[in-house]
Amino acid sequence: MAHGSGEFRLLVAAALYGGHTGTGAAVDPAGPLLSADYPHQTRRPPVKRRRFLSTTTAALAAAAGLGLGALRPAMAQAAGDLPMSSLFLATDHPLQEAWSRWKALCLTEEGRVVDGFQDNVSHSEGQGYGLVLAAVFGDRAAADLIMSWTAENLAVRPDSLLAWRWNPASDPRVSDRNNASDGDLFYAWGMVLCGMRDNRPDLLDGAGRIAADLIRRCTAPHPDGSARRLLLPGAAGFRDAGTVVINPSYYMPRAMTDLARATGQSALESLAADGQALISALASRGPVPDWVQISAAGITAPPAQFSQNAGYEAVRVALFQIWSGLPGGLRLAPGRRQRKRPDLKAVP
């Protein structure tokens, strides 16, 4: 993943690899909107860590409420037909111990989710994952800590979106105020889930503001002139001279549908459907790549600074499809190695 990759790997491998601690610091609201290293290239974890990804990814799906008993009926339903309450686990659920271990390894006392694979930084994506899991496990105290730290340290933009990265080794801690749309999506979804579980309408209001700004700042018309729209990875960048660079793993159909229906931002549900059509088209031709470029002529390989592997970005696509009850038609690269796609020809 171009940003937040470590948090995802920490989520799926938390029981295997150690956690980290850090302290918060003030950010400079006048910092630049876009830095030269956004999005940066993901560093792959060591081989021993990579070996456990397939097993621990399945464990994350279970922790999100998709245990084997719930998985079969979910696979027959569309994302909008899965009630949010189906995600919530009881306080005596066996996976509560795994959640406690994850917090001990990955969550600081201040509410910061730490990416140990990328120099102990934090990302909006990691804060979003943590908030969703706190809602799933009914941990209001952890949710409040995560939201408090995020509001103090990442909510530095003039809109309701979050800065994508906080770096304890830089001054200021937030040197790039661009957002990451998947981080905003998961964070807003986590607010909705917490609001629903704990009857907190103020959280639904906050999620609605993020959803509205995602639609306003992070969507673009399809270059082919159709009514379809695309989810931009961030508000700044990713568009140039009739082309749009897209990360397929930024589409999480269930999160988009739940967020749309809870906040009244129906454009997100349409965006999810457009994204599903894009992912299905990619999957029909082979493993879904990390990044693609879209123009009026079709889908092509992205610019050189973006990975076209079916790698640690794209691994999320299959998980999000299953989590959303939409598993059909996706193909994954065989084995444990990242697989590089052949150069993409322009396809519709």
Structure notes:
It is a single chain. The chain is of the alpha+beta class and 348 residues long. It has one domain (5-25, 48-340): Glycosyltransferase. 41% of the residues lie in helices and 8% in strands. Helix 6 (124-136) runs parallel beside helix 8, helix 8 (181-198) packs antiparallel against helix 9 and helix 9 packs across helix 10 (253-263). Residues 1-76 and 331-339 have low confidence and may be disordered.
Provide a brief overview of the structure:
This protein has 12 helices and 10 strands.
Topology:
Layout: H1 5-13, H2 47-50, H3 53-63, H4 68-74, H5 96-106, E1 122-123, H6 124-136, H7 140-153, E2 165-166, H8 181-198, H9 201-217, E3 219-221, E4 229-231, E5 239-240, E6 243-246, H10 253-263, H11 267-283, E7 292-295, E8 298-300, E9 309-310, H12 315-323, E10 339-340
Antiparallel strand pairs: 1-2, 3-4, 5-6, 6-7, 7-8, 9-10
Helix pairs in contact: 1-3, 6-7, 6-8, 8-9, 8-10, 9-10, 10-11
The proportion of residues in beta strands is: 5-15%
Q: What is the strand tally?
A: 10
Whole-number mean pLDDT: 78
* Structural classification: alpha+beta
CATH class: Mainly Alpha
Q: Which regions have little confidence, pLDDT < 50, spanning 5+ residues?
A: 1-76, 331-339
How far the N terminus sits from the C terminus, by CA atoms, comes to 25 Å
User: What is the second-level CATH architecture?
Assistant: Alpha/alpha barrel
Separate helix tally: 12
User: How many domains is the backbone divided into?
Assistant: 1
What multimeric state do the chains show?
A: single chain
Q: CATH topology, which one?
A: Glycosyltransferase
Shape: globular
Helix content: 40-55%
**Biggest pleated-sheet summary:** 4 strands, antiparallel
Q: Strand order within the widest sheet?
A: 5-6-7-8
Keywords: Carbohydrate metabolism, Cellulose degradation, Glycosidase, Hydrolase, Polysaccharide degradation
Family: Belongs to the glycosyl hydrolase 8 (cellulase D) family.
Catalytic activity: Endohydrolysis of (1->4)-beta-D-glucosidic linkages in cellulose, lichenin and cereal beta-D-glucans
Pfam families: Glyco_hydro_8
